[in-house]
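User: I'll paste a sequence; please echo it back and then give the predicted structure.

Assistant: Echoing your sequence first, then the prediction.
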Amino acid sequence: MKTKFPSRFQRGFTLLELLVATTVLLLIMVVLLQVVGGVGDIWKSSTGKISAFQNARSAFATLNRTLARATLNTYHDYSDSGGNYRTTNNANTFAPSKFARASELHFVSGPTAQIVNGADGIANPGDAVFFQAPLGDTDDVGLTSLNRTLNSTGFYIQYGDADASLLPTWLQGFFNNTKRFRLVQFVEPTEDLKVYAATAGGTYPAVGSGINNWLESFRPGTTSPRARVLAEDVSLLVIRPRLSPKDEESAAGQLGESYDATRVGSLLAPNYHYDSRAWQTGYPAGRVPATGSPVKLSELMRNQVPPIMDVAMVSVDRRSLLRFDQSSPTPPVELQVASGLFTDSAKFEEDLATYSQQLSDAGIRHRVFRTSVEIQGAKWSNN
């Protein structure tokens, strides 16, 4: 048997070849690590965005669902020649003349700084809305089984301390003094309703009149209604009451105005103000614009809920705000709404795009939520 020995000419890899192979392997590993790291960053960024806007999406759904349930429980009652109803102030002199739409409830929306006492356009940007709805919120054990009892409720934006402000005093020191925009909902329990006391006199309740003005209980800093933060980092809420195009064309004729197709959606609330009690004596002048016709816009709103509400909400990504100073009582200028925006409801879309572009230019990641809410209890009439 012959034994085969390896040839003396066979050899292994040289040191240079090993170095080259190792270098190539390292380069491949570096490239793979960069790819994996990039994918990880994209994943974390996407997950962060989903998490950042998830609460805002839920809050937006809650707002719209509650708004759709707004009601005035209207009925027809006698009124005098001036359109006033019998009240405690005119009981001895009241002379019935005709039937008119009546309600003791109240629906009001518009710029927060103008309808909420103590609010301003910087710390409370955009619009607020207040109304009654059958939410069944009560502390009275005798009413807890009635899940459709009436509540006063409202929504608006508030800039202030973060969640630490809702904690016990001894815990607040463990959190950073960071201020944020928040979407806040106020709910007045059934047993504490003040709207009936506010409307019993037959005149528009003046701001600052205490218990005689149900809106007074919703101003910032009060503790009477329940307040809960629906979502943080919501920098803007805009609400535009409007009619359907067909109803708007009909209403324009009654108001003595020509129907302008370029301003569709702006006839009912040209400056975003809507108030079901704007017809009452004492209503703030100029809040609801007058018209050239004997039929005024305030009369068109009389004890009616708007049939459609265009709602827009802007939520910002908290991580993109880290480079801004958020300890000041005043929000960063990059988040503030310019004074000329959202004053003409015909420019609703245009102004929303302008504000969105402002945030993009500042490198602030954000999302705009939009919808049109149909009020279930609205029985709109142009009569």
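The chain has seven helices and eleven strands. The two ends are 119 Å apart (CA to CA).
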